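Supplementary material to the annual report.
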Amino acid sequence: MPGLSPAFVALRVIELADDPGGEFAGKLLADLGADVVKIEPPGGVPGRSIGPFADGRDGEPDAGLHFWTYNTSKRSVVLDDTSLDGRRLRDELIATADVLIMSWTPRQLAQHGLDFDSLQAEVPGLVILSVTPFGLTGPWAEYGSSDLTALAAGGLLNLCGYDDHSIPPIRPGGNQGYMVAASFAHCGVLLALIERRRSGLGQLVDVSMHEAIAVSGELANPYWFYPKALVQRQTARHAQPVSTQPACFKCGDDVWVYFALMLSDTKAWAATVAWMDELDLAADLVEEKYSDLAYRQQEFAHIQGLIEVFFLMQDAQTAYHEGQRRGLPIGPLLALEDLPDDEHLVARDYFVPIYLPTDEQRSAKFPGSPYRFSSFTSGPARPPRLGEHTDAVIEDLVSRKAVQDA
Amino acid sequence: MESQWEARRPRPRRGPLAGVRVADFCWMGVGSVATRLLADYGAEVIKIENRKRLDTPRKLPIYRDEVRSYGDEDANPDPNKGGLFNNYCRNKLGVTIDMSVPEGHALAVELIRHSSVVTENFAPGVMERWGLTYDFLSSLVPDIIYGRMSGYGHSGPHHHYRSYGPVIQAVCGLTFISGLPDREASGWGLSYMDNQAAYYNSAALLMAILHREVTGEGSEIDVSAVEAGVSLVGPDLLDVTVNGRPTRRPGFPRGNRLEYPDAAPHGVYPALGTDRWVAIAVFDELEWQRFVLAIGEPAWTADLRFATQASRFANQDALDEYISNWTRTQDAHEIMRILQTVAVTAAAVQNPQDLTDHDPQIAERGTFFELDHPVIGPALFEGLPMQLSRTEADIWRSAPLLGEDNDYVFGDILGIDEDRRRELAATGVI
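Predicted assembly:
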């Protein structure tokens, strides 16, 4: 079993980011073994007051599951950067860092007395990772944002919702606007760190959540760039220039499965009919006339009706594994409570037990590392309590200065 | 014409990854998007294709000036016409190899010997069938990085399951948590996890490269799209594992409303025009007061039901109806402008036409850029949403034509002479 990579263990990161985009990027570095020191204002970053909370401890800064999700493996230092002493301490900490993670707009940076140009001049090796709603430049740089409005402006929201267009587009769950920004932030900081090995110099990595979303719509932009077609949203399946048949089916146990039958795929058609026939639910689909694609297309409402009945006659797990056994790409719409017991995730030891910040005698499962390397490891450790490491980090700073002065 | 081909000739690349050569067996969406980022930043990514089994994005009918739906493929597609392939494979070199014949297999091995990264996203087992295991690759190149991208990962009881974006999104929970309360999921209108798994794979390759630079060690990488998806579902997952609170419960998922924090109004409202919408998110008392002023202080805003954050949150049905009556007579972008001017969080629900033709932020930041292509002509590309102050992306060429760089790669890199190359082409090996 390999250990953490020296490449990341040696990294010192100061994080002032206070929204999930920057925080998740910091978490990804921290889970690799980097020393990510999160600087928080007295009372904690805003994310500490967002629920849900552990064990009904509503409002307690150390008990927020939102905070835990985006801040595993970090250390927490509280300092007040509105005071002169606090600000000096903050700047001294930044001077010790390889990477600084920010999420403030230019106006917020100025309010907090931070200027990237002078920082770069003072600490030439520093990589500044800025993850903001719109990027640090441009006419919308100071616009307010949230996960919902970011997904709206970036175009992803336009793709998601129901066939019924009297219903507005619906935001997918889990703060994905921030998550897309975090993914690019992670790539950007790694590129800057690789470049720094050659030049010895840091640089500013300016990530825009708006643009990250705008380039992540898969088919939507190419459909506009090439045939000038605008895709239309459809219930739980690809937005398309023209409508396609529903792809989610309800099973007998009230769990849905995703199963998109491409009528033009001869192999999938044969496999589906054989499967239905085995349960005596294929009806007339076994007849020769259905081998003709044009006939299948003409009869697609009838076919769809039979498939609906077919899935209602079994439970979702049976349909999932039996369909996959037959080579058909099918998946159940798992609820989150299904995940920790999923036999595949269990076999791969995906979830990691972590002792809770609120109760070190008790552990709960956290999502583990999404990537596995043969030569080093990655994985979450306990999120920090508010200010848990203030003393240790300041003592360390003092001894660093003593070494410097000596 | 001469000069166009001249400009397409392979040249030394610039950027942090200059000098990294990738033998890229990737295809479809995830793999191609993953290695695109490496190519953008200077890696020499050599895409290995099979003439007998064209990469799907070459065949998907996203053609210039010709509207076809996703499933409506041309029976005999021009492999150089596909817009999606162009979008995914810019800045990469393209070669063709028939892996099923011994000469083809030997060529691939030789190319790997000249590379420092190998990438693939076939169904598990395909590379093994060709003998291209990590053990074998590291016998050729001791510090090789072997990036393996799949739906379920390379171990575990479901590792061989077939998947694509929507199946991954279903199995990792992302679809279930997306929709209006107490009805079927609305989920995702795209293969979100194709993009996210691709970005995770790009990052994993970069991590392995950084690790190698520091330690000299190579790596085999196993990224499962399902696991990447689970890592993205957010705080509701800990609500399950810490609090035991199931997501199969009345009132879940939350549609466009937030439960944490108790923002209100928080929704998507109809605007002027067909299927045009605007998102508005008001998080606190001050923002609400600015919102009320911006919409002209109509009488209903004084309703006691809307007096506090908590009461607005409790009375969202009524609140949303009033707001919809205000929004539906106005242009979505105008609403965005009016509200953002007074620091109220709002955004038009933009479509790709808005992004391309009207969005001043995209225009100013140059997010989309144009490159010429010999068959398709000039086309727009989805660029990079991050700007590095000292390191520009090295954007030099649109996607390769099928086998476009066979001469350069097999000749200049592998040193195979012209007669032999002609023979390999004539016998269908390349």
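The first helix of chain B runs from residue 2 to 8.
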